[in-house]
Amino acid sequence: MPAKSFVIIFLLPLFSVVVGHETVQSEEYPLVVSTWPFVEAVRAAWKAVDGGSSAVDAVVEGCSTCEELRCDGTVGPGGSPDENGETTIDALIMDGLTMEVGAVAAMRYVTDGIKAAKLVMRHTEHTLLVGEKASEFAISMGLPGPTNLSSPESMETWTKWKDGRCQPNFRKNVSPANSCGPYSPTHYLQHPGETCSSIGHILTSNSGLPRVGLHSHDTISMAVIDRMGHIAVGTSTNGATFKIPGRVGDGPIVGSSAYAVEEVGACCATGDGDIMMRFLPCYQVVESMRLGMDPKLAANDAIARIAKKFPDFLGAVVALNKKGEHAGACHGWTFKYSVRSPAMKDVEVFTVLP
């Protein structure tokens, strides 16, 4: 006899528990959906869009709020130091009506990631600006800076990591000159006299890789449908803790961390960006919905494609179609996402089990 599946929903004033990745329908616009229980960010976006702001502007309001609050230490300044102890910002915004995108990556010295991304979209023909040149552009367009993006908390985290011999880290197949580098590639095949046992001690491995998760690397990824039915998405993150300087995650990569198409819907993603960006999961979700999949199936399908190749990855997506139906899917962790619609008195947080 085939196994039966059960769906249980507990409705509370603020939180809803969702088991089984089922699709939840919201009857009216506007609508705000965000990864994680970033309730204040969703409230800010809701206030904007409910007051008549465009989907793009509401996304900026929501993500900016998370940057200002330094949500979980993984959004905005003051968190996720790289190997050198520096915090940098990745952000993206996409207009699902015009398909315009603006993004910044590895941006230094500027706290306003999502606003910088919007400036790229509105005032350039480019899609992505990176590094210190992205900072120069953002400041030239009126954003505050230069600003030190580190905080006492991020520097304390980095100091403890340095004291722990810079372990774990994101390097592999390298030989460090000392416990914290500098590193050079290990060309062990060029030394025929060495055995596997003799070279094992000079190889660093990603077996002790910092686990992606809450308080180590998470993105706010938000989708908004405004009163006109227009849709936009945005993301902001300060990336993976102890990342190699210059690393860019999935946050500013269109189709990976977020994607929106006016006539179809949107997707938001979070998790191990170095793995997830190889699959463009949000592009996959939206295209699956375009072909007729409901949000539940589209989200599950995108996650399954990644898990088939990388069964140990941690990640999640939220799918949202133009009917207002939304669903989440995750792998390797329990995932939560936040929603506000006209039918709700406040933000509701949905829990999706792996």
UniProtKB/TrEMBL annotation:
<dbReference type="GO" id="GO:0006508">
    <property type="term" value="P:proteolysis"/>
</dbReference>
<dbReference type="GO" id="GO:0008798">
    <property type="term" value="F:beta-aspartyl-peptidase activity"/>
</dbReference>
<feature type="site" description="Cleavage; by autolysis">
    <location>
        <begin position="218"/>
        <end position="219"/>
    </location>
</feature>
<dbReference type="Pfam" id="PF01112">
    <property type="entry name" value="Asparaginase_2"/>
</dbReference>
<dbReference type="GO" id="GO:0003948">
    <property type="term" value="F:N4-(beta-N-acetylglucosaminyl)-L-asparaginase activity"/>
</dbReference>
<comment type="similarity">
    <text>Belongs to the Ntn-hydrolase family.</text>
</comment>
<feature type="signal peptide">
    <location>
        <begin position="1"/>
        <end position="20"/>
    </location>
</feature>
<dbReference type="InterPro" id="IPR000246">
    <property type="entry name" value="Peptidase_T2"/>
</dbReference>
<protein>
    <recommendedName>
        <fullName>beta-aspartyl-peptidase</fullName>
        <ecNumber>3.4.19.5</ecNumber>
    </recommendedName>
</protein>
<feature type="active site" description="Nucleophile">
    <location>
        <position position="219"/>
    </location>
</feature>
<dbReference type="InterPro" id="IPR029055">
    <property type="entry name" value="Ntn_hydrolases_N"/>
</dbReference>
<keyword id="KW-0378">Hydrolase</keyword>
<keyword id="KW-0645">Protease</keyword>
<keyword id="KW-0732">Signal</keyword>
<dbReference type="GO" id="GO:0005737">
    <property type="term" value="C:cytoplasm"/>
</dbReference>
<keyword id="KW-0068">Autocatalytic cleavage</keyword>
<feature type="binding site">
    <location>
        <begin position="247"/>
        <end position="250"/>
    </location>
    <ligand>
        <name>substrate</name>
    </ligand>
</feature>
<comment type="subunit">
    <text>Heterotetramer of two alpha and two beta chains arranged as a dimer of alpha/beta heterodimers.</text>
</comment>
<feature type="binding site">
    <location>
        <begin position="270"/>
        <end position="273"/>
    </location>
    <ligand>
        <name>substrate</name>
    </ligand>
</feature>
